[in-house]
């Protein structure tokens, strides 16, 4: 059965529902798993006899693979077909999930997570383009909103789902459960997604393999170098310098390109650049909290894995409540102000959790975690709106790619800094990581305020 062709009015309704369901299912399980692993991390480290600083690479390997290859896979999809890249990525993600579940040692698990990240990056990179060709043009905003909702809910619900799984099974089942879901996504996607020939970019051109390699080197070496500064300073500094050099070379190569792999044209728009910077800061704060809180609860406060997931769940509930409310508020008030308030609330919650986790009690702990979620929910939706609203309509896809890259860059930066903290000060690492997260949340709010002088936050009609 051939996949239907895309046209100006999108796919026929029944086929569109199947296509959209497949895309959102795969994106949802990839984001959900990333959030689940944080809760199980202390238990995985214990079962595999790994130190916390080493076990964090179970998270880092996935994040690094995604952030280093997201933009190259998006460019590859423009050349060889978004459908092909999505199907291949989903298959790799599912097979790597099975490999994670069967991993007998930490090195094997980290390698499987790296492969899983490559599959997740391929699927996520072409998701905006597939939805664009599946929906009628008049419903493109709905497509973007649905995706943002799935990503937000999946990220926030990870701790709760992890608690439910770990209450009845061991951690390998968190990974194993993704294989049948990935197969379901493939079964829905293969006959439903738009044909490759119809979804290829009108810009054409050959895939720039050198630019893709420079992009992967820039992101990968910078984050590996940051981690290595504490363990092996000389090698870390060399890797960091190599990453910066690769980034400079990438910018030079991409300058003036008609279809740049790195969307430099959008980054030059001040409002978008500031929104990207704020997003990196706040997602770094979120990831530092999601990794540090399980270690704080299980190692310092004596809670088990199920209790840990439940105690982090208020973050998810608060985000779910605040995200739609923040969207309505951003229709009436400055998104810069809303983002600044959100960043400040997140910072306050993390700072208090870092300062007095033993004295606040269960109710106080839940209240502070919920405060962090309120702040993050208040930040995320208006900031995404500012990023998309300031971009020309013709560059909506590039702006969506920047959203994903900023989110993943922030999360990778956060997980890397947590690993550094465990290396430098293992006795106080969870509290110190939360304090650093508070600083990043405050920085994201401060960056957001710089957008206020751009009128309606720079939005285009």
Automatic annotation (TrEMBL):
Residue ranges crossing the lipid bilayer per the database entry: 20-41, 53-73, 85-104, 143-167, 173-193, 205-228, 234-251, 271-297, 309-326, 333-354, 360-379, 431-450
GO molecular-function term, one example from the UniProt record: transmembrane transporter activity
Pfam families named among the record's database cross-references: MFS_1 (PF07690)
Main localization of the protein described in the UniProt heading: membrane
Name the UniProt record assigns to this protein: MFS transporter
Record keywords: Cell membrane, Membrane, Transmembrane, Transmembrane helix, Transport
Annotated source species: Caldovatus sediminis
Annotated membrane topology: Multi-pass membrane protein
Domain Major facilitator superfamily (MFS) profile: from-to ranges: 14-456
Cell compartments where the protein resides: Cell membrane
Top-rank lineage group of the source organism: Bacteria
Keyword RNA-binding appears in the UniProt entry: no
